[in-house]
Amino acid sequence: MVISQTRRGFVFGALSLLAAPRLHAGEPRRLVTLEWLATEIALLLGERPVGVADLDGYRRWVSIENDGLVDAIDVGGRQQPSMEALTRLRPNLILSSALRHRVLEQQLSEIAPTRLLDDQPQDGDLLAAVYTATKAAGEALGRSEAANRLLADFDTKLADIAANITDSKLGGQPVLIAQPLPGVPRLRIFTSNSAVMQMFVRAGFAAALDLPAEPFGFSTIGLEGLAALDGKSKLILLADEAPVELENSALWPMLPVVASGGMVPVGLPSWPFGGPASLLGLATNAIAKMRA
Asked: Which residues constitute the domain of residue 247?
């Protein structure tokens, strides 16, 4: 009985995979992306996805190559996309996140060939993961050369920023990069292994706090933790302004980094979990605000 059930499951799975659309020579690609990193990389490589998870969120928080999404259909949330919406789109490739969708890989593969980008590496190096994900996406899309050029351009532009920073008063400037958390008097802060913090260090800045690596590249901090920032540091806030939950505290204006004018709200879009364009855009915007 067990053997019979296993065989039936195998046959059903095989038939499902055979029924899933495949890309043939000359056929336009019908790509669906289920994570914003995958969406950004695909767009940067010249692809126009027919479906995107949390499309409005991407346009607001990431806002890279939005013109390439004018015809895209929203297929639900990034954590739990709509299988019905995906099936209706009849994609011939799904590009997504290993972190979010490893548990859904079999279901997704029954709809279309699926490539999960490794965005949570075992060594915790999240900047290296951006390189790995970009190369993997390029391979899946048949655009490996374009992916290599994209990463080479990222390296060149980051080196140019570093050369400029080194020769300016911002050279070695201690920074802490933070993101407000809705409804609580705490900030998400990016640790030494995060992509965004590693990028700022490569660009010529220094870490304002010695924060140990964390699995997802961030931790949280409250008012007491922010008090450890001295008046020479810059608090780069990925928001338009400080959250009211912090500003309403009597301690907030007394913090050295706040009293010295060291808080730098960079506004939106500011996506610290993105690809090469998101990261460079965030750095460029933050530097401009610090120089203003």
From this structure: 152-291
The model's pTM is 0.88
Average pLDDT, the chain: 90
Residues 20 and 85 in one domain: yes
Q: How far apart are CA 208 and CA 233, in angstroms?
A: 6
Q: What CATH number does the domain containing 73 carry?
A: 3.40.50.1980
Query: Do both 101 and 177 map to the same domain?
Result: no
- Number of independent structural domains in the chain: 2
43 is a domain residue: yes
160 and 112 both lie in a single domain: no
Task: Say yes or no: 65 and 157 in one domain.
Answer: no
Write the DSSP string, the chain. Answer: -HHHHHHHHHHHHHHHHHHS----TTPPP-EEE-SHHHHHHHHHTT---SEETTHHHIIIII-SSGGGGTT-EE-B-SSSB-HHHHHHH--SEEEEEHHHHGGGHHHHHHHS-EEEE--S-TT--HHHHHHHHHHHHHHHTT-HHHHHHHHHHHHHHHHHHHHHHHTSTTTT-EEEEEEE-TTSS-EEEE-TTSHHHHHHHHTT-EESS-----TTSEEEE-HHHHTTS-TT-EEEESSSS--HHHHTSTTGGGSHHHHTT-EEE--SS--TTS-HHHHHHHHHHHHHHHH-
Residue 127 lies in a domain: no
Q: How far apart are CA 229 and CA 211, in angstroms?
A: 12
* Whether 19 and 69 share a structural domain: yes
Better-predicted residue by pLDDT, 53 or 22: 53
pLDDT value at 14 more than 80: no
**Hey, what amino acid is at 201?**
V
